[in-house]
Amino acid sequence: MIAIVLQARLDSTRLPGKALLPLEGKPVIFRVMEALNQIPADIRILACPEDSLSDFSPLAEKANFKIFAGPKDDVLERYCKVIRNYSIKRVIRATGDNPFVFSDAATAINAEASALEADYAGYLGLPVGAGVESVCAKALVRAGELAEAAYDREHVCPYLYTHNELFALHRPLAPLRWKAPSIRLTIDTSEDYERAKELFSALNRLDIERYRGPEIIKKYTELFP
């Protein structure tokens, strides 16, 4: 079973409550789920801490995501609990501050990871906030058993890609159509949010669900040359 597992929380330090900020009339976290719904998967899960459950539950249901509450700061363990609960074989990991995820790139990297039986896969050189990570569930559980550093447990995947003696990695440069590392699409600060509102508004007028990575890059560069 392939699962999209989206991690999110409410108490962001730099932009508190950003997951619920409006983006063209819907909360940011809902826009993220809309983007992730364009990626093929068997199941979609919003994994959050207990203190976010009541705010996120109705949004997850509306977006056809299941919701799962786990540890707040040990996000790696949150993922491991999701894997055990749903008997997942491969995880497409996404985060709640990225409403412009390239669904076409995500579909491609997951297909490559599955074909290569990679423990971890992710494109290098994508815009910040455009990518996902494809991870073998067994490898992620093993990382959960081995990782001790707080950084590894908070950020989920670093233990895998910093231990290539233990895990099979696939980290290719993104194809040219998606490669734009200087572009920032994530929402982490108030400046990011203002830029995202302008970009989303421009894309929404063009039917964002039909647009993929190259079109998002093109529109971004038109707006922010």
Describe this entry's structure for a reader:
With 225 residues, the protein is α/β, with parallel strands linked by helices. The chain has a single domain, classed as Spore Coat Polysaccharide Biosynthesis Protein SpsA, Chain A, CATH 3.90.550. The strands form 2 sheets. It has a 7-stranded mixed beta sheet. The model has no long low-confidence stretch (mean pLDDT 95).
Mean pLDDT: 95
Radius of gyration from CA coordinates: 16 Å
CATH-defined superfamily: Spore Coat Polysaccharide Biosynthesis Protein SpsA, Chain A
Number of helices: 9
- Distance between the first and last residues' Cα: 42 Å
The portion of residues forming beta strands comes to 15-25%
Instruction: Give the CATH class.
Output: Alpha Beta
What proportion of the residues is helical, as a percent range?
40-55%
Number of domains: 1
3D shape: globular
Largest sheet: 7 strands, mixed
The chain-level structural class is alpha/beta
Strand line-up across the major sheet: 5-4-1-6-8-7-9
Write down the CATH topology. Spore Coat Polysaccharide Biosynthesis Protein SpsA, Chain A
Instruction: Please name the CATH architecture.
Output: Alpha-Beta Complex
Order of helices and strands: EEEHEHEHEHEEHHHEHH
Question: How many beta-strand runs?
Answer: 9
Low-confidence stretches: none
